[in-house]
Amino acid sequence: MMSVNTLLITASAIIGYSLAIDKSLATLPLALQFLATMLITIPASLLMNRFGRRKGFIFSSIIGLCGGSLAIVSIYEDSFALFCLTSVLFGIYTGFGNYFRFVATEVAPPEHTNTAISYVLAGGVLAAVIGPNLANYTKDLLEISYLGSFIAVLILYALNLFNILTIDLPKPLNQAISAHARPLIEITRQPVFIVALMAALIGFSMMTLLMTATPLAMQKEHHEFSDVAFVIQWHVLGMFAPSFFTGHLINRWGAENIIFTGGLLVLGCIVTNLLGTSLDHFWFALFLLGVGWNFMFIGGTTLLTQTYNEAEKAKTQALNDFSVFTAVTLASLGAGFLQYHLGWRMVNISVIPFIVLCLVVILWLKLSIRQSQPE
What we know:
- There is one protein chain.
- Helices cover 81% and strands 0% of the residues.
- By secondary structure, the chain is mostly helical.
- The protein has one domain (2-172, 180-372): MFS general substrate transporter like domains (Growth Hormone, Chain: A, Up-down Bundle), CATH 1.20.1250.
- The longest helix has 30 residues, at 191-220.
- It starts with a helix and ends with a helix.
- 54% of the residues are buried.
């Protein structure tokens, strides 16, 4: 799943730019992908709670295969509208697939929850190598650019479907257990839930804003597509390679401190971007951005698992992912507008207030916990 997503991140904005009449809409397909992910998060969680994880993932795999097929048609027909529809199908697939990280917590022993989340996301290390390189090496494989890339997408989705068909996943929740659930409003009032949501929401959306605008900024600075693929590859490595030890860091230092460190790394990315637009600047900035996202997202997900019980997990996870991908959708759509009309510098400056807000909220949580402890 993540290999396909990194391939799309590498190529989607550039394909959109080539197909769209209004070039400011270049990131619209990627935005629609995130929009579809956002809209499907709640139905996906509830459907899998009712029918089981396995059936949900099989259904989404079929949707993904349809999306890969339609992508080939849209490029062959030079149709921006069809490519946008394709992105919606990819988004539906991703909306289901994002629950892989929660499945890890359901099958792992409680003492290994943090590391289970990390190890699942560590699959992104392979995605960092596979996705951008597939985009680069398959781009001109056939006579029409990028047709080969989406044939590769079909192969990856087919492999994932085979994977789902051969493993056993948790069965639907017993309905008698689901009666013992607090109202959602009570769950959301917990300070830990607020910080968990904000960490994932701000970390993911601001990462998306910078990441989505980067290929367009590099293209404007006359960098080659192979350079774009190189930068995205290192960005995705930064996103997922730390997953091998992020869980252990959380166990040692606490999720709040890891999220705070992630926010500082994102600020470091912004400073690097503001200092220059050479390949080295883009490379180092996007790598910092990836590590910062990893700390904020895994830290936020870890905190979230502390805010609900078994009966409450479906609606709590659904609300969390719906909120996160609402923000991600707005960020991906805004990336094209900001980059086209205001430029790369303003794209970066616009991120600063949100990261600072996240850092302040974490300090608020730490202060609240300290004040609640008996002297």
